[in-house]
Amino acid sequence: PGIRICVLGGTAFRGPDSEALTAGLAAELDAAFGEAAVFITGGMAGVQETFAKHCPNSRVFNLLQIGGSSGYGVGVDLEAGESLDERKKIFGQIGDIYITVEG
């Protein structure tokens, strides 16, 4: 699938410019990488949700523990791991690039 870019960050924004930074970063990375990359979140609120919702071409995959749902309305929810800890371990192994905002 090309380059796998994983997105991490806080579940709530604390800095006054962080939400706009996250939204802009999503749009710019989506445009820069085109079809060469997919974006992977952990399906969490805050940074990950904002990033996913601002990828215009929606090459977003939300990695969730079994039975979970991101509720984003964008991207594809994928199940991985029976618990949050297992899902985190898998998430930590699949990315080529990791981006963190407020995390």
Topology, element by element:
Blueprint: E1 3-9, H1 18-33, E2 37-41, H2 47-53, E3 60-64, E4 76-79, H3 84-94, E5 97-101
Parallel strand pairs: 1-2, 1-5, 2-3, 3-4
Helix pairs in contact: 1-2
Could you give a short description of this structure?
The chain is an alpha/beta fold and 103 residues long.
Description:
Helix content is 33%, strand content 25%. It is built from 3 helices and 5 strands. The protein has helices spanning 18-33, 47-53, 84-94; strands spanning 3-9, 37-41, 60-64, 76-79, 97-101. The protein has a 5-stranded parallel sheet. Helix 1 (18-33) packs across helix 2. The longest helix has 16 residues, at 18-33.
Shape: globular
- Low-pLDDT sequence parts: none
What is the CA-based Rg, rounded?
A: 13 Å
Order of helices and strands: EHEHEEHE
Strand content: 25-35%
How many DSSP-defined strands? Answer: 5
Largest sheet: 5 strands, parallel
Mean pLDDT: 93
End-to-end distance, in Å? 26 Å
Structural class of the secondary elements?
Answer: alpha/beta
Helix content: 25-40%
Task: List the strand order in the largest sheet.
Answer: 4-3-2-1-5
Number of helical elements: 3
